[in-house]
Design goal:
Layout (H helix, E strand, L loop, with lengths): L6 H5 L4 H9 L5 H11 L2 H5 L11 H8 L4 H14 L4 E5 L18 E6 L8 E5 L6 H16 L3 E4 L5 H9 L6 E4 L13 H10 L1 E4 L11 H11 L3 E4 L7 H11 L3 E4 L10 H8 L3 E2 L3 H7 L2 H13 L6 H14 L4 E2 H8 L3 H13 L3 E4 L3 E4 L2
Parallel strand pairs: 3-4, 3-7, 4-5, 5-6, 7-8, 8-9
Antiparallel strand pairs: 1-2, 2-6, 10-12, 11-12
């Protein structure tokens, strides 16, 4: 142990290089890595375990852990350390206080995460929004509108940065204070898909991008279904907007159910192939939703209340937060006429504040006043 080059890592739990050595060793995935950590402690202790490794892993893996890293791995480690040292980038390990608590409770949490952007979003109230890459115009509109309104309520929108529904969900999330988290199936330095490059750059600046895969990892087909467990794992619930009968979105929904998350689905036409997956989920117990209020009503009261209050408590007239407050009022209004008292209770606003917001919305042509002092949204 005294001759082990990683002996200092035993004394310093935050030794990122030891974590990188462990995760970059061929044959060590998250399950094997956790088994080694459970047996020996921190990665530095794993690397110094010597012959004791033989009882837990194949000889090939044990020998790789005992030897100094080869030139290729050394280059990978140096590149990762350099990347993590860049402002806005971070590598978060299982031993890090910033590691998302929600992922600690899924069956297969990754040993570390590469994070770019606002890391605080990984601890936010969150909803995953997923669906078809070949979505209809209506599906794209649903994903964007639901995400924008929920982000307006302070809910972070989690998705996978794919074309179609994912991209629309991220775009909607970026328009509210809840923002958005993109969980990708490549190295975090890889632009994939290329058509979403500009969107990814916006998310890195205004939201957060997360990957469990090392830098340079190309888009391998096997990595994307595995990535889905993190999309559902980071969220308290999953909304499926459009999905064919055999769809990756159904994998995410299944994983969400296994993780104890709520699953929501938007119904569609019985003649649409992209509605069949959603209808299948609803038959299996997913909750049918037509408005964002349907989702907030189904979530735990404390979750929904925190989301609403986050958007309203920081409100500033005429600013972005003011827009968030009006979004709360609009979503609470639904599509049926409602009186001011009921609306105030839904939004948890005092009468004077609500009256001001209703006047702004009426002057903007977004709502109308009906006989009996009831209000109805226009669109």
């Amino acid at each position: 142990m005294d001759d082990c080059p990683f002996s200092s890592a035993v004394e310093h739990p935050a030794s990122l290089e030891a974590w990188l050595r462990l995760t970059l060793t061929d044959g060590i995935g998250s399950e094997t890595g956790r088994r080694l950590l459970g047996a020996f402690g921190l990665p530095g202790q794993v690397l110094c375990a010597g012959a004791a490794l033989d009882a837990l892993v194949a000889p090939r893996i044990a020998n790789a852990l005992r030897k100094p890293p080869a030139a290729a791995m050394r280059a990978q480690i140096d590149a990762a350390l350099s990347w993590a040292a860049t402002p806005g980038n971070a590598i978060v390990t299982l031993a890090d206080a910033h590691y998302p608590r929600a992922l600690l409770h899924i069956p297969d949490p990754p040993l570390l995460l590469y994070v770019k952007g606002n890391m605080a979003l990984l601890a936010a109230n969150a909803l995953a929004v997923v669906g078809s890459r070949n979505a209809t115009a209506q599906g794209l509109a649903h994903a964007e509108r639901f995400s924008e309104q929920l982000s307006g309520a302070g809910v972070a929108i989690v998705s996978g940065l794919a074309l179609g529904i994912d991209a629309a969900a991220h775009a909607g999330g970026l328009r509210g204070p809840g923002s958005t988290v993109a969980v990708i199936g490549t190295g975090i330095d890889i632009d994939y898909p290329q058509r979403n490059r500009a969107l990814a750059q916006r998310i890195a600046q205004e939201g957060c991008i997360v990957s469990e895969y090392p830098l340079g990892m190309p888009p391998l087909a096997a990595n994307f279904p595995r990535r889905n467990r993190l999309i559902s794992g980071l969220a308290q619930a999953v909304l499926v907007v459009e999905a064919a009968a055999r769809s990756g979105s159904l994998i995410t929904a299944r994983m969400a159910a296994e993780q104890g998350r709520d699953v929501f689905a938007i119904p569609g036409s019985i003649h649409s192939p992209l509605a069949k997956g959603c209808h299948q989920l609803i038959r299996q117990g997913a909750k049918l939703v037509e408005t964002t209020q349907d989702i907030l009503d189904e979530m735990p009261a404390a979750w929904a209340a925190r989301s609403v209050q986050k958007a309203i408590s920081d409100d500033r007239p005429g600013g972005e937060d003011g827009d968030a407050a009006t979004a709360i009022v609009m979503q609470a209004m639904g599509h049926d006429p409602v009186d001011a008292d009921t609306l105030a209770a839904r939004c948890e606003l005092d009468a004077a504040r609500l009256a001001g917001l209703l006047l702004e919305l009426e002057l903007a042509g977004r709502i109308e006043v009906l006989p009996g002092a009831r209000y109805r949204r226009l669109g």
